[in-house]
Amino acid sequence: MCGIVGYVGRRPAQELLLQGLTKLEYRGRIRLFVRTLSDSPPGSARHLEKGDSIRAWVDIRRPEPVRTPGGFDQLGWARREGIHAFATCKNERLLNVTTAHISPRAWVDTARDRLSRSWRHVADPLNRAVTASMVLGDEGALDATTREEFRAAGLLHLLVVSGSQVAALIIGLRRAMPRPLRIRWAGCAVEGAVLLVYCLLAGAGDSIVRATVMALAFSVAVRADLHRGGANFLFASAIALLALRPLDALDPGAQMSFAATLALVAHAGGAARGLAARHVPGLLADVLAATVVASLAVAPLTLLHFHRFSLIALPANLLAAPLAVALLYASLATAVLDVFFAPLAPAGGWICGIVAEALRSLAHYAAANDPDWRGPAPPLALLIGLTGLAAGRGWSRRILPLSGLVASLSLSSLPRGDGRLHLWFLDVGQGDSVVIETPAGSAAVIDAGPSFERFDSGERVVGEALWRLGHRRVAFLGVTHRHNDHEGGAPFLARHFDPERVYVNGESKALRDFSPKIVRRGDAWILDGVTFRVLGPDSAWTLPRADENARSLVVEVSWGATSFLLMGDATRLTEGLLDIPRRRYDLVKVGHHGAATSSSERLVRDARPRLALISVGNRNRFAHPAGDVVARWAGAGALVWRTDIHRTLHVASDGKRIEWQ
Questions:
Q1: 421-660: which CATH number, 3.60.15.10, 3.30.2010.10, 3.30.230.10, 3.30.980.10?
Q2: What is the pTM of this model?
């Protein structure tokens, strides 16, 4: 939806923002998203060049802190990147170039374009997209299916220009150099020049810059300190990088870069010599050793940050590593041939196509056969204990990490409940999802948000929240009705959280493999003292057959003296048939995202909630919520909480009163 991303306000000069009738001074960097049109006038966003100064009418907002457990920390990311605000230009016609400048890096952009054009000799567009992504980090033409298969196979790092490509260049260069040059400063200069040029061609993103700096530090260490190795230089480079960007210490990508590089410096050489002793060819031994060592080093961090442990990732990477190295060198060779020996370039493109096709096939079959184990992050003490056991020598150095390991395993088995009922009304955009934690620590989910080609709320929002809260399983999964904005993420949750029961309002094709149970008015169940009661619909009610919203489940949740009413997408027709107890609810999850077809005066009067939660997407195409619906709940004395404005709502009950934030 957002076509162009740029930065405004790089210089310390002030910017003037118009807010209402007041001009406000602003200093700082802004990340600007511009929505593009199919037919662009001259001077529009489609004709922007790097270095241009622009003037635009925009909606501006500050970065937001994370509110959803396991959610993306936009504020933390913005601080690391030095971005002070985000802005959206609704139409590129509202943007004008005031001063055109030639970027100092114009030669780099020209070289990137020339390199990209050389891959026209790769016949298949998908193979061409994989080549561009792996070599230059250009993911623009990469389709969602290919990216997801690489991710599921544990090969996604190959599509992002980072340490993998830098390691391949270093290994190839050192193997190609004469032995005397490998330990001389002239060899260091050659390695440095190649790495710096490639870093610029690849876009000089954070990951490639980190990898390049640490590779240069290791290259210097090889010549300056042959006997002690490169660990000291590696730590020096890490300290220098963190001195420039201290918040990178909290970035999972930076942590994985440092861990992989340290493991390569400490263990890759020994592993390569072991493979060479078993008659594995030198270059292949180096590639396989680096792959094994780096994969094992980042596995704990992958589990800690991304809740994923792939059993097939290591063998897939062992097979993919030689192919990735071959594709890197073949693509660069094709670019050289295209400039100096054009008749031979198609042969290079043909080789690139074969290798890229092999990588795609490997990712496809690995993803199809991966058990895809997911789970909550292990206790930090467990990771520290395992690291200490692996690094320590002798029992005297292993006692402390072994104690931490035992303690972490013991503590992780303790119950999670704190004696209170917790309800997390998650911000899933235009959809609904509620995560419920009982006083004894069990978890349940009602609705799972939408699922689209590139985004599954069940995985990216609800699943992440459950894992961050420490849950591997859910006691039950309820889906109020079969619309995508409520049911879309449910199949993922059913596969990965093994619910004991699945409750639905009717036959569900998406969940039919999980033995769903159809529930109706009068059905009820108790989980750890918390009562769940279905208030509607009733099989005896006469409802329009085509109106799935009218058939949405309405569920009451009670704990002690507190109660919560979850309306799903129920319409006024359903509301009129409900038998609502005449008591004040602590919270009502407003029906149908606050649409005008919901929230009748009778329901609002009978429920009289303290909180009215409207789960709705920002600037959604349905114009939800309706203004009169919001006014009706507010007029009844409810505090109206909207997920498009206030984001995720967390409510906790001790059985007598509620707290929220």
A1: 3.60.15.10
A2: 0.77
